[in-house]
Write a structure and sequence with these properties.
homodimer, alpha+beta, Butyryl-Coa Dehydrogenase, subunit A, domain 1, Butyryl-CoA Dehydrogenase, subunit A, domain 2, 3 domains, eight-stranded mixed beta sheet, 56% helix
Chain lengths: 596, 596
Amino acid sequence: MSYAAPVKDMLFVMKELADLERIAALPGFEDANLDTAQAVLDEAAKFNGEVLAPLNFEGDKNPSAWRDGEVTTTPGFKEAFRQFSEGGWQGVMHPVEYEGQGLPKLIATPCIEMLNAANMSFALCPLLTDGAIEALLTAGTEAQKQLYVPKLISGEWTGTMNLTEPQAGSDLAQVRTRAEPQGDGSYKLFGTKIFITYGEHDLAKNIVHLVLARTPDAPEGVKGISLFLVPKYNVNADGSLGERNDVLCVSIEHKLGIKASPTAVLQYGDHGGATGYLIGEESRGLEYMFIMMNAARFAVGMQGIAVADRAYQKAVAYAKERVQSRPVDGSAKQPVTIIHHPDVRRMLATMRALTEGARALAYVAAAHSDLARHHPDEKARVSHQAIYEFLVPIVKGWSTEMSIDVASLGVQVHGGMGYIEETGAAQFYRDARILTIYEGTTAIQANDLIGRKTMRDGGATAQALLAQIDQTIAALAERDGQPFASMHRHLSAGSLSLARAIEFVVAKVKSDPNAVFAGSVPYLKLAGIVLSGWQMARALLAASDKRGEDESFYSAKIATAQFYAEHVLSMAPGIEASIVSASGDQGVLALREDQF
Amino acid sequence: MSYAAPVKDMLFVMKELADLERIAALPGFEDANLDTAQAVLDEAAKFNGEVLAPLNFEGDKNPSAWRDGEVTTTPGFKEAFRQFSEGGWQGVMHPVEYEGQGLPKLIATPCIEMLNAANMSFALCPLLTDGAIEALLTAGTEAQKQLYVPKLISGEWTGTMNLTEPQAGSDLAQVRTRAEPQGDGSYKLFGTKIFITYGEHDLAKNIVHLVLARTPDAPEGVKGISLFLVPKYNVNADGSLGERNDVLCVSIEHKLGIKASPTAVLQYGDHGGATGYLIGEESRGLEYMFIMMNAARFAVGMQGIAVADRAYQKAVAYAKERVQSRPVDGSAKQPVTIIHHPDVRRMLATMRALTEGARALAYVAAAHSDLARHHPDEKARVSHQAIYEFLVPIVKGWSTEMSIDVASLGVQVHGGMGYIEETGAAQFYRDARILTIYEGTTAIQANDLIGRKTMRDGGATAQALLAQIDQTIAALAERDGQPFASMHRHLSAGSLSLARAIEFVVAKVKSDPNAVFAGSVPYLKLAGIVLSGWQMARALLAASDKRGEDESFYSAKIATAQFYAEHVLSMAPGIEASIVSASGDQGVLALREDQF
């Protein structure tokens, strides 16, 4: 099998680090216990490993193709999507009242990881549909929810997010697509949207586009943007399909990776206007879009973890099979499999440690999201929501940045074969490269982390997390042995670095915004490394307690945690230097535009 | 122009850091003064910018194609190769007696950089020819030199290196291709060679393959390998071409990048044996091949610097043109070009600093090579040769590792457009990815750095370099101002880290080879970062002295050096931790094979 979901590792994180039992005790999640989780993950592992994983390389070789406004997806995708839909996989975390399964995000998250590890290009379609469902549930009328959500969950229809225009990438204030009210409650939309993932395809009968546009009298900037629903085929009141709407896919992009996922240029209103419907209130479009985007950003972070794990599995398999050179310690006279060479071992351990650290942090974030939605105490809900929102840009930014490095190491482990496309390792290197760009570049995530997440509460949420890390550090100090000593040393240094960086950001963002934002991405990476390292420390403690129950599994957790401490967390102080020295005219901005 | 060679930066390094005047004072290099250098570089900049750079993207779109054993290169390559040859560019550093120009490696090196920045796929053909020339000059008979070298320099023929076989990648001991003596001084070769760059093409009339093979009674392992010359067309005594030889290109690879460069599978001897000639003495093949490889490894390091600079130039151009979002400091109410955003500035400065640092180190290494060959004093020659050989794996390993990061940042600066192949930024990301693999992976370079370069003289060469760094640190201490303070702080810390790493390597490599080799690649990276940082420190001192002469140019050098200190050199202590903690069972190797 080309992808075997690491169900045991996932359940370890869910149980020991994200406290699934606590989630299962929340109102509404009574059935979401460990047995349920195990059953869902086993089933997901089977489906993704058997059906979707084998199609991944096929999608790279035979990408989606455009012809006369229509897009034909990779052979096999249509049937796989039918199976995906029938299995109920779109609805795992969506409400039961709209035909979803109503499971916690903590259980849905490993399912999303598996889906993306098996086939990232395929997974983008459900990922965008999830965003559309989220936006409709948040801002749609009950009639809209009833009309659209069950069909999105069943896979009969899919959803998209239409934000970007040629002049409006990261800067949505520049959106120009316009929506003219027709007096009957509907609107006519006119404009061009680019980079629309699964903006056109043949997997489902209809596509529900959620589109940012301006009404005629709307103010300039982000405050004048509203959110509209524009179906590919108009929908009758009974849910049946009406006429083809005036939205046309004029081309799809020729991309570095995720080639099976069609990236559409959509033209609205070339033939009289595309019929659309306002979602929520006028001029609140960006706010609703952020709800979709936060869900999507978390999911993109999961894509990073997923592609990293897939690249890791492939590299491990190759390293165990490829025979080359004798061992450096003279322990054999004949060439050995390359996993016996220390540098290959280092690369594999790096891939593994980065992936496990990011996974642990993301699952913990998912649990905070569940607590934020379902905890009976409002104060607790607010606090968990704050932590979740603090973690989202880190999960998105850090998991994707590390995934590029991990995929690149995966190529390196394969040596010359890694550079040959037929080997398949290069696909992950190409696929991963989009992840730090779409749904907000790493810099956009970092700005969000600084502006909305660190500053808005004066650093309170960040400090609360640091206080929790201190407790873990105290627990490490009570244990004996090199793994604990290494982790104690590097987590202490790392959290001090993070604390000083937070202090710097909070103190300087108003008086010297250029200096702070010049270090924004290093700040996000530092937070990612330290917070993931904190989870690895918690994993170390838990694994040490359980070691006797399953020596091989838990000693691997211990070794991986130690490796993370010594080889990843150890970089934290250097990154801190990069953040606090990024000062104004003396630093990053010293080179003038004309000197580049 | 899509590539403008940074002639001024190159001359700055040649003059101020690599001491061109000292090279021009060596016997045989009397004409190689600054005026000559300027003239050669200007001419190279013109040719590469106008002729080769525009063909780079074309080569990616229309790669070399194989049909019935023949390879057709990208349209335009043949004419460009004619111009390259007529311009005398193959012969810049080769001896005048074989029709070369006999210029120092220090002048040839920027020419090689330009060639690779303009068109890396094209440049691979001359790069391999250089290697063949080098091997023939070292080990060939005078008759062989006379017969082959002038035609390789004139571009009438080209050269290749045939090392790899399916079972023999990094481990050349496994080479199985056999060479049977025919009694007339010639041999018949039989075997399969893979990954042969420009192993077949239509740019020149003949291809001179240099092939590693075993004679019938040769011992096992690397000691039984000899080097043979196998021409595609047999060569008559007068240099005219005879019959087609029994070497056939059976396929070329479908690669992630450098697509215009054909990577051939060559089959020798399927029709009675390929006629070949022994180069040098029997069983000394690997030794000669290492001469070629050392030249080629240095050149691959230059490829890293070249592709990094090209990616940087493209990213700068885009950042100065693309308008998106208002500045974070509120200095404008309208969206600005993205170069005004601190994170974009940070990315561009990172790309620039890494590229300039690696370039400076490589050019300094080239000067040591010239001194090693031409210094009148034998002791000096030996000492410069030792430094050059110490630097080669670092130039190869570090310049290529950083080039992947730089090319990746180049994609990131372009945002979503970077992921679209038509933009061209993604090509550099794909092309660069081979550089840490071919001509010896980074791990192979790191093993060489530890085994042959650090250990063989008990760390003496490494210590000599550290002593020179100390002198630079002392000079920094005498200057005032933040750039000097930052550089002093981080170069001091970095060189201490490097000193401790060297000490660790020397002390432990015999008693605990696994621990040392587990940190081999971090050791190489640390050496690359610190030694390049040392050159940036020297650049800082020189630029500061000259500042008044050209304020804009030298203040940019100062700012770039400071950036390097604060954002690159600052990572050195973290890497040291990774090296010295990579200890045996407690570290990298703690995870057993079955636990991956």
